[in-house]
Amino acid sequence: MFVLEATPRVPSHPYGKRVLYVDEQMGVPLYVLAYDQQGRHYKSLFTLYGNPAFSPGNEQVRAPLWLGTSAINHASHEASVTVMKRIVLQKRVQEDLFTIGQLAQLAR
């Protein structure tokens, strides 16, 4: 595990600093602590990655698969969870999904 401390270059950034715990083998942050401008622990993020060998259709992928994230906002006493239901990396994404009309429709 690598521990990295990041401080923003822009003084108006909402975080005063972030501490990232990065998995040495996968190279991805598994745990992030965020602090506000006053140095108070503001938010915790936990990220879960999976082995592509156990994801049907992605067995040949050579990178960890993002499965989900949980975030705890200590200031507001709220939490959220994001979970992937289906991961498909071997199929090409259709270019027409990225037209202005399609993106505007998805934003609604």
Q: What is the beta-strand fraction?
A: 35-45%
Domains (count): 1
Based on the structure, what is the oligomeric state of the protein chains? single chain
Stated plainly, the CATH topology is called: outer membrane lipoprotein receptor (LolB), chain A
The main sheet comes to:
6 strands, antiparallel
CATH class term: Mainly Beta
Q: Give the rounded overall mean pLDDT.
A: 86
- Separate helix tally: 1
What separation lies between the terminal Cα atoms?
A: 40 Å
Helix/strand order, N-terminal first: EEEEEEH
- The assigned CATH architecture is Clam
Q: Which shape, going by the Cα principal axes?
A: globular
What is the share of helical residues? under 10%
Beta-strand segment tally: 6
> So, the CATH homologous superfamily?
Lipoprotein localisation LolA/LolB/LppX
Low-pLDDT windows of residues:
none
Strand order, largest beta sheet: 1-2-3-4-5-6
Task: Decide which structural class fits the backbone.
Answer: mainly beta
What is the C-alpha radius of gyration, as a whole number of Å?
17 Å
Could you please describe the fold and organization of this structure?
The longest helix is centred in the last third of the chain and has 7 residues, at 100-106. The protein is built from 1 helix and 6 strands. A hairpin with a 5-residue loop joins strand 3 (29-35) and strand 4. 4% of the residues are buried. It is globular, with a radius of gyration of 17 Å. It starts with a strand and ends with a helix. The chain has one domain (2-106): outer membrane lipoprotein receptor (LolB), chain A (Clam). Helix content is 6%, strand content 40%. The chain is mostly beta strands and 108 residues long.
